[in-house]
Write a structure and sequence with these properties.
- The protein has 340 residues and is an alpha/beta fold.
- The chain folds into two domains: 215 residues, Vaccinia Virus protein VP39 (Rossmann fold), CATH 3.40.50.150; 95 residues, DNA polymerase, domain 1 (Orthogonal Bundle), CATH 1.10.150.170.
- 39% of the residues lie in helices and 12% in strands.
- The chain is built from 14 helices and eight strands.
- An eight-stranded mixed β-sheet has the order 1-4-3-2-5-6-8-7, with helices on both faces.
């Protein structure tokens, strides 16, 4: 179920400027950046689509490879990303275009413009800037209004969810999107304490809804609840399911796709999608000769997900759960009407 209405994408062009892009790196340490760029292998004059621009840390490294004849297109639904993109574009060594939309609407808009990028990549989940902006309510470490919207222009927020949804539905969200074992007790406590308006009130409800022994095991007791509510408020997994085929269909033969995820709920659909694209014959094993004619569309560039090394995990603790997967497009889906 989609919890927010798709916004009409807005396009912004920016002129080519000099490098280096020092302003970007002062704000954000991109996760698995060298590994991502190595897998994408950008070349001069190509076009890249960054589906989750954020602070532009990955975009900076890709842009350096694209050069003056290349184009980097950044997509982000968070309106605060536009200012960061403008700073990036002012120094970028390539042409820059910003699409103000979630990545489903953004990819559809690019398809409508006939843009066929050489590579598409995603850095999933919330950005460090969103976590650190205490007033947006993403973090259980700050007392702030219950918000959690990646696009503040969206009407529905976390306060609406916890104060209006029935207990059973809140528990379902906590189980599905937070994998929270104590979902029933937490949901019951949330409903009993309504109205909840701040993150600290939510944290108190979570702690009260958990057994005492669970409050001090496995990190902050509200971590899974905050993750679940954020995913539900922003429709993150629904958007990912829609965006994966859109990103893949946008690529030409030889085009590359990559995604960085930060928990299993993001990683599983990426892994499954790429595995299906890389699968050849799907005939039952008892049939000795292939009759289905199914050919793989992808060559996996990562047989197993790439994780940060010890040095990166120590320098940037938020990177520890990251997983990177990538593939190259080697054929079109003949059932989709594409021409190879």
């Amino acid at each position: 179920m989609r919890l927010h209405a798709a916004r009409t994408p807005t396009f912004s062009h920016a002129p080519v400027g000099p490098s280096p892009l020092s302003l970007v790196t002062r704000e954000h340490d991109p996760v698995l950046a060298p590994e991502l760029v190595d897998l994408l292998a950008p070349e001069a004059g190509q076009t890249a689509v960054d589906c989750t621009f954020g602070a532009g840390g990955h975009a900076r490294l890709v842009a350096e490879r694209l050069g003056p004849g290349g184009t980097l297109i950044g997509i982000d639904r968070d309106p605060t990303a536009k200012e960061r993109f403008n700073r990036f574009a002012a120094e970028a060594p390539c042409r820059a275009l910003f699409v103000g939309a979630d990545f489903v609407a953004g990819l559809r808009a690019l398809r409508g413009e006939g843009i066929r990028p050489d590579m598409v990549y995603m850095d999933l989940g919330m950005s460090s800037m969103q976590v650190d902006a205490w007033e947006r309510g993403f973090s259980y470490s700050y007392d702030a209004p219950l918000d959690m919207r990646m696009d503040p222009r969206q009407g529905f927020d976390a306060a609406d969810l916890v104060n209006e949804w029935p207990e059973s539905r809140i528990a379902q969200v906590l189980r599905r999107f937070g994998e929270e074992r104590h979902a029933a007790g937490i949901a019951r406590e949330i409903v009993a304490r309504r109205p909840l308006r701040t993150t600290s009130e939510l944290v108190a409800a979570v702690q009260a809804g958990m057994p005492a022994s669970a409050r001090f095991a496995g990190g902050h007791p509200a971590k899974r609840t905050f993750q679940a509510l954020r995913i539900a408020v922003n429709g993150e997994l629904d958007l990912l399911d829609e965006a994966l085929p859109l990103a893949w269909d946008a690529l030409p033969l030889g085009g590359r796709f990559a995604a960085i995820s930060f928990h299993s709920l993001e990683d599983r659909p990426v892994k499954r999608f790429l595995a299906e694209k890389a699968t050849g014959c799907v005939c039952p094993p008892e049939i000795p000769v292939c009759v289905c004619g199914h050919e793989p569309e992808a060559e996996l560039l990562t047989r197993r997900a790439i994780a940060p090394g010890p040095a990166e995990a120590e320098a940037n603790p938020r990177s520890r759960s990251a997983h990177l997967r990538a593939a190259t497009k080697i054929a079109f889906d003949t059932g989709a009407g594409e021409e190879g």
